[in-house]
Amino acid sequence: MKTTLALLTMTAALFTLPAFAADTLFADMGGQPGIDRLVDASVDNYLADDRIKATFDESNMDRVRAEFKVQFCQVAGGPCSYSGHNMAAAHKGLHLTNADFNAVVEDLQAAMTSCDISFATQNRFLARLAPYQHQVVTR
Amino acid sequence: MRVVLGASVLAVLLFSQAAFAEDVSPGMINFDEGRLLATGGVSAVEGEGGGGLAPWALITGYGTRDGVGVTLHHTYVGLPDYQLITPGIAVGLFDRLELSYAWQAFDTEATGAALGLGQGFTFHQNIFGAKLKLIGDAVYDQDSWVPQIAIGLQHKENDRGAVIAAVGGKGSVGTDYYVAATKLFLAQSLLANVTVRTTKANQFGILGFGGDKHNSYTAQIEASAAYLVSRKLAFGGEFRTKPNNLGVAKEEASFDLFAAYFLNKNLSLTAAYVDLGNIVLHDHQDGVYLSLQAGL
Known about the structure:
The complex is a heterodimer of chains A (139) and B (296).
Chain A lengths: L1 H19 L4 H4 L2 H17 L13 H15 L11 H5 L6 H17 L4 H11 L3 H4 L3
Helix pairs in contact in A: 3-4, 3-6
Chain B lengths: L1 H18 L22 E2 L5 E2 L17 E11 L4 E11 L3 E11 L1 H6 L7 E14 L12 E11 L2 H6 L6 E13 L4 E10 L18 E11 L4 E8 L13 E11 L2 E9 L10 E10 L1
Antiparallel strand pairs in B: 1-2, 3-4, 3-14, 4-5, 5-6, 6-7, 7-8, 8-9, 9-10, 10-11, 11-12, 12-13, 13-14
């Protein structure tokens, strides 16, 4: 009986905990200045990466950077509302492969490391981006 | 011999890939190395992609759904009274199907002499594996609780049928079937796997299949958990239950504590403390597990 009660309490705690836990990811990534630095470092990496740089041939990179900065802020739980392209529309016609998606992830990981974002924090952020794979990879 | 053949085939494939790397046309084998570091797991003791003791639902190597991956491994297990050496090769096709082959040599050292088999009497096993990913993606599906799920089989052929029969084993050939579920809890940097295997194997098949006490398939459970310390390093533990079919020797569950280091997508090293419990005449067979994997 006591065990059942303890289990129930634990289960309830597990389900309610995320709802009440403060979302610290935006702060842990250095707030908007940290996000801005990260986006610039990651875009620099994409443009230097032979595997994916051609993807941005037709892009206005100033606009891409600006959109990423708002989007990353929103994904990290910051006070931003991304109103740019939705992910499926933005990548439609690019015919990106899974390998392309992962190349972006690797470049982003390298950028996060260069911005002194801890590995555990990197994974919290990547966990929120990972499901975009379903919309981005179309080939 | 088969290992040498496998290595030769691999070398030819690697060479042809390098020669045409600039122009991968349809029909060519595309070793895209497009998956993320460590997402193929390591090579488990029976040759498939997994942890050390358990198969995982992950497909070996770094090929994406558009490519092919291949891994070669060599594993050593040193126990107080026995030693296991097992090299192997595995191919991952389109992040969907995995085919593996491992050769195991289990050296009974002084125990062989004590049993009248001779010093250093060695059991050999060929293990042919196949694994098919059914649903889910352990890495990308971070917005869902559904794990990556795969089914697989391991067909094992042991070369010591006479000894196996003498200790009460019912066969020298057997096939295990399993279902594996793997989930990466990325926000927590944790990976978890649960595998249910139905098997008749005694000591992984080294002492044959079925026995005088039990001669039917039983379901066994295998669980693994790993914490990702960095992109290159993971610490974890595993647990695997086994049947207890033979009257002459009790068989116990096994577990390990491991560290896996991924130098890059081409090389990883796994070091573990492993405890296989009682193995014929000797209790508490615990020791070191070392496994080197090379691939792409």
